[in-house]
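Input sequence (72 aa), recorded before submission:
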Amino acid sequence: MLGSRLPKAKQFSYTPHYYDPEKEKKTGHQIKFRRHFSKASIRARSLVWLLFLLALVIYLVLFFIRLSHSQP
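Predicted structure, token format:
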């Protein structure tokens, strides 16, 4: 153990192929992120879930009403 050296991380430099910092400074272009789903589709999906849950609650209420009337 005496005199042994620990391995160090290898250093490297990486330059992206399609990145031009001078062009980016001139144009002032910034990277923008896009959503995969629009707000309208999210609202429509939530409306579908709301209707589904409402139908489920109505079904369960009717089921338990019939169940309570059938017992003596």
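Checked by second reader. The CA atoms of residues 16 and 28 lie 18 Å apart.
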